[in-house]
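quick one: beta-D-galactopyranose bound model?
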Amino acid sequence: MVSLRFLLCFLFVSNVYATIVSHDGRAITIDGHRRVLLSGSIHYPRSTPEMWPDLIKKSKEGGLDAIETYVFWNAHEPTRRQYDFSGKLDLIRFLKTIQDEGLYGVLRIGPYACAEWNYGGFPVWLHNMPGMVFRTTNKAFMDEMQNFTTMIVDMVKKENLFASQGGPIILAQIENEYGNVMGPYGESGKAYIKWCANMAQSLDVGVPWIMCQQNDAPQPMLNTCNGFYCDNFVPNNPNTPKMWTENWTGWFKQWGGKNPHRTTEDVAFSVARFFQRGGTFNNYYMYHGGTNFDRTAGGPYITTSYDYDAPLDEYGNLNQPKYGHLKQLHDVLHSMERTLTYGNISTIDFGNSASATIYKTEEGSSCFFGNGNEKSDATISFQGESYVVPAWSVTILPDCKNEAYNTAKITTQTSMMVKKPNEAEDTPSTLKWSWRPENMDNFLLKGKGESTQTQLFDQKVVTNDQSDYLWYMTTVKFKKRDPFLGKNMSLRVNSTAHVLHAFVNGKHIGSQHAENDKFNYVFEKDVKFKSGRNVIALLSITVGLANYGAFFESKPAGITGPIFITGRNGDETIVKDLSAHKWSYKTGLIGFESQLFRTESMSKWSVESVPFNRTMTWYKTTFKSPLGNDPVVVDLMGLGKGTAWVLQSNMLRYHVPRSFLNAEGDNTLVLFEEMGGNPSLVSFQTTRVGSVCANVYEKNIIELSCDRKPISAIKFASFGNPYGNCGSFVKGTCESSNNTVDILTQECVGKEKCSIDVSSEKFGAPDCSGAARRLAVEAIC
Ligand code: GAL
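yep, here:
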């Protein structure tokens, strides 16, 4: 063991890479080789260390050369100068996992990330420092940014992880898309970017630095493109290779929003088009999106799931056909690496958005035939041959003769995922719940918090983002004969709280939430005040802090007022401004503070009359870990808004990584429900491939695979002109008389994968009036 270890060290030291930019701006050169680089974003805290090896392995099998990640400052430095690199935050372990798999790394230190991450990755304590303005020539900001960036660089250097040290990291990034928002920062913005460049350069990492979406990136910073399409992008310096740092494979999801979807064909088109037009580095944002655990989702209102419709789904399963269709594209592009990075480029314009691009070296040529017309197919005549290029697609011919790939022709299976009920032994079909109320007496009846001020503050200033919850409480006294006291009284609150629950004298008078993109609203409710002392308690809740836009750090959150009581006495309206009253503040909720979610919590829970639709309520249950290895999902059906913990890990909704669970014995699920819900519908499930389908033309080979499980049956198969989609295929007007289901049953059933040669030799030759024949198949896993 000892000697083996020594040998490995020796190999590493001798293997010192150099990443440089080729002098003609044609490519990134690694260790003397010009590269066509395919990369994918995986953010380490959006999965668990146990998941990393599998995710990275699947990325490599998907044809990637590199993994990209941001670094999340607020997660690593939650309190100033107190750092956390444990568990999901073990950046070095993540980078080493990439290295172990033999992939390269792209490290986007930022430290501004955006990324739908809470506050864009900035710590809230940073905002609360005196005189602080983010992302401009503000001394306090620049000092902190430099401090964090330097620390990360030093950590990475210490482990020899930069390519210049023999490690995997070939590129680093400073700032993030500043060019998109820099207008409002004026001259200071321009000076800031220069400072960022100098600061980064001074850290001497030995690999090039990227500044994405930054047209004025100072040399030697590489400006790169982010977007759905980047084929038209031209870097600001002829020596800079054409690089795409974020090719959005889907999109993020907002609470109440649709599941985002970007078609596989369109992602493939954008990549092929980019390489047709001289691109050399493409990074998928995201390749695996994952889950926003804890309170990491940005916002407001970004969901806990960060699936992104990425090639690897939230749970790490292959999202087919996206994963497979892109893998084929990567293989073809890699096979053309030499011609693409050295070849002379010539183009032919055929009109109507059809074009050919030829890369030619002395050894041979490679071609792209592009059709940017969204509606009509193009017929391209090239060197005596004629090629049909479907609408909005690119055909790749590595030898300029034979079509190896077309972005619109999918020959990869589609997988339909299914969720199955928890099949653990002895698990009853419904969970048994106990409950307890959130203790709010001190706030609702006494209005008593931790500190008082005669001012209404932004929530961030008070909580330092240690919690989503902040109580604002005050007391108002009315004399018996106060002209105010009457029937027509109301409480009016000008609020920027993402969610507001209002109580007067212990009674819940109403709740409201901010509409998306409109964070100022007026909450107004009729209230009966009494003579003597009245307690107003307002619970303000954040649902992810803003992460994007110029000066986003100062977007308000909370109850900044003004707050009025209005009363009407005949024609007269009397207004009482409470804004400068004595306000008592309390950060967080008691149940969180007393850690009700901890298994060993001694608090009393009741199994009697478990309530439904009760606000501010805690629920607890136990369950057995589902058998097998399929990813585990908790379906929080029936609940409104709140937080869930599985064995103390705060995971909110959706994916429960296996590493959170006790494989044997009991696991606890604790829920805190704010709005009122019905926990009896909550269930644990596993997710896996349910069926796989293909619909491919003759002369293709299609592989069916149930992701390491045997194929159990062929549900549908037809060779001819079948139509419809996976799950609803229908036979067409022509069909082979051979028994296609039987042929496929023999070839596939009982196997983990099977490869089918779609040919008339095998399936027969039905007469489809000259139209190309297709095989449609649906196999059950
Ligand atoms: C980009 C940003 C990413 C991410 C993406 C949307 O503008 O750089 O961090 O937020 O948008 O998912």
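The chain has a mean pLDDT of 93.
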